Every structure is written in structure tokens, then in C-alpha cells.
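Q: Structure for this?
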Amino acid sequence: MTFILDPRLENDSVFICDLPLSQVRLSKNSAFPWLLLIPRQNDIVEIFDLSVADQGVLLNEMRVAAAVLKKLFTPKKLNVANLGNVVPQLHVHVIARFEEDKAWPGPVWNSGVKEYYADDELNEITAKIKKELTA
Amino acid sequence: MTFILDPRLENDSVFICDLPLSQVRLSKNSAFPWLLLIPRQNDIVEIFDLSVADQGVLLNEMRVAAAVLKKLFTPKKLNVANLGNVVPQLHVHVIARFEEDKAWPGPVWNSGVKEYYADDELNEITAKIKKELTA
């Protein structure tokens, strides 16, 4: 079965790599180092709609994503969340947060803070993250 | 070692029960059925600061909490998150969301939406949730 990515997720983020369960993408919002993990299964909305085994795989992949953000960016705090009120397709946010970021200490969603990577920045950061995720 | 609960978490929520790893509490904000899972270990900030085994236990407890909210409240969506930008002590939010709730589709944090349970309502809802969590 072909995995179908919600066009809003596709539009708001760029592909980094596939892990065993999830597609990993980087949010185009450069105000925060912000990964999305999207299990490549159709019609899954909640983490708990996955099989229990796949929930464990997702947790592993969240741990890997978190470790990569910690290593590359040394954040003050990680924000890890599945909301999905707007886009129901299951996607887990793993976000590096800093006391200096423009939404701190509030959440990033609905913060109104939106910045953009230059093309070469985007290429550089996705390559760096991909290298760590697949190391 | 005595488990020390952050006074801000204690003040914003009421005790429901202890699961094997986490203390489960209900947010006093009645605008949303909103559980907090707080692993009873001191000096833990990130989910990934827990041992890998305890991360699995936490995932189980999140699944149980989510199932209880689904059964009791039939939400449109669950919001599951660890932010901790304000209160670093690890606490995972498991929140039942509805298209009719006052923050939908935005996140509940920083939404400005705050309502209060009457005492008898609070007793009733905590008893109902406790019964399901410990069934």
C-alpha cells in the first residue's frame, strides 16, 4: 500500500529520511529546530491506533530524534507532542526549545512565530540531521 | 527516596491515583478533561531521561490514560505532550479535545481558557477516572 502524506504536512516541512516506522521531516519554520515523525501507515490518527509493537518503535524513533536535536542544538528543553487537531494524520513533533527562542516559554503552535530558512541553510541542516539520524 | 512533586503541578491539579511509574493527576481546568502523568522519580526532566525500560512503562501508562479518556469522554482527538518549558519536572499531558471546546483547534496551553470544577463535580470526575484507571 502506498503511504499517503497529508498535503499540509508535506507543504509545511521537508523530507529528511525514513526510519523503520516513520518518515522524518523538518518543519520549514526556522524559528525552532523542529522535527516531525510520521508513521508510514495510512488512516492512523492517534499514537494508540498503532499496534502496541509499533508504538514501541515510534517511542524508539522519538528517542533517536530527541538525541539528535540535543546533540546538534543543545536545547534548554525538548517539546514532544502529538496534537493533530488540525491535521489528523498521526505526526509527532520533536522540537528543540531555547530560552532565547521567540515563543519561549509558550508552545510553538499558534505562537505566531514563523521564520524561513534560506535554501542553503535548509540543505545544510537537513543533511546534518540526516547524517545523525542514519549514523 | 521521597518523591517530590513540583508545587506548581500540585497547585494546578488534583491527585487521582498512582500507577506503577507515574502519579496521575487531573488538571483543575475544567474546560478540558486533562490528565497529567508524572513519573515518581526526582530530577527527571525529559521522557528520555528515564531508563529505556521506564520509557516503555510510561508509554503503557499514557496508553491507559488515553483509553480512559476515550471511554469516558469520546473526544474528537487526544493531545499527548511533554512540554515542560515552565515546570521542568517531567509531566506528560493527556488531554481530551473536542471541536466544541473553547480552545479548538489550538493547543490548550496559553489558550487563556480556564474554567473551574465545582467541588462535587471534581469529586465525581476524579472518582470515575480512578475507577477506570485501576480497573
